[in-house]
Specification:
mainly alpha, two-stranded antiparallel sheet, 13 helices, globular
Length: 293
């Protein structure tokens, strides 16, 4: 057995996550195409690391039955304790942490949040006893995500408006260029991926692994879809003057269903139920966008 085979995949992708979260912001690049290239490269690498880490954790959770609830409880307790660290260290504007300390705090904060979210998603996945149930469950989750993110009175919008610090704490950072038009700039982590996205991503991953579906193809498809999603949120929509609020579960649902649809063997009733749920989801999407929410 080689060293690469002996090291668990989640350890490798965890190391990649921390390397990117801590190393990328240390890079100072001249503004222009080089900075844009750095943003694109680090965002792509971080997205790949996050996806592989979630799938690796889901694989371990399927292999070890008690691991998912242990990740949920342990990750949540550790995350709550980590949130109390700035107060314990008396961090403030008058007493700010060092750049390295702040980077470590952000990276560990996101890591613990992901661990708890994956634990919850992998635990919920155990309730799905057969693969055919994924056909209605996946679009239903996307429909709920649409309601919480895009509707005027939606939960996410209310939180963003009334308690933005809560939304930031419940998100994982990715890399983005600072807005200031300076001669040189660093890649800056910003909160963008919500905890709910990781919960359902882990749920999908665990089910794909357990039922022997197209895991690798789905992973690649999700990477492409979420990269397009991030590009829209970070650059395209702000450039058009549109609020960058897009539900990530919608492209995740489309990719997962499209790449695995042939594996489902639905009865007549299951097929009808799935079509109804998908139709409701599509109708909701159309309704939300026509309202201009």
């Amino acid at each position: 057995m080689t060293v690469a085979q002996a090291v668990p995949r989640w350890v490798v992708w965890s190391a990649a996550y921390f390397a990117l979260q801590l190393g990328a912001p240390m890079l100072t690049l001249p503004s222009g195409w080089l900075l844009l290239g750095g943003v694109l490269l680090t965002t792509l690498l971080l997205m790949a690391s996050l996806l592989h880490l979630v799938f690796a954790w889901a694989h371990e959770a399927e292999r070890v039955r008690w691991l998912a609830p242990a990740m949920l409880v342990g990750g949540l307790v550790a995350w709550l304790g980590w949130n109390a660290l700035p107060a314990l260290l008396v961090w403030s504007r008058a007493n700010p942490p060092s750049e390295l300390a702040l980077g470590v705090y952000r990276a560990v904060h996101g890591y613990l949040l992901m661990a708890a979210a994956v634990g919850l998603g992998a635990t919920l996945a155990k309730l799905i006893r057969e693969k055919n149930l994924l056909a209605p469950v996946i679009p239903f989750a996307a429909m709920v995500d649409m309601l919480t993110v895009l509707t005027p009175g939606g939960f996410v919008k209310q939180v963003m408006e009334k308690a933005p610090e809560v939304a930031e704490r419940a998100s994982v950072a990715v890399m983005a260029a600072p807005n200031a038009p300076e001669a040189t700039a660093r890649l800056t982590p910003i909160a963008i991926i919500g905890v709910g996205d990781f919960i359902f991503l882990a749920l999908y991953a665990a089910c794909l692994i357990r039922f022997g579906l197209r895991v690798r193809a789905t992973l690649i498809g999700l990477f492409v879809a979420l990269w397009v999603y991030l590009a829209l949120v970070l650059w395209v929509l702000p450039a058009l003057g549109i609020a960058p609020r897009l539900p990530a579960l919608v492209p995740m649902a489309v990719v997962t269903l499209a790449l695995n649809w042939r594996a489902f063997q639905l009865s007549r009733q299951e097929a009808i139920a799935s079509v109804v749920v998908i139709a409701l989801a599509l109708g909701l999407i159309a309704w939300v966008f026509t309202r201009g929410a």
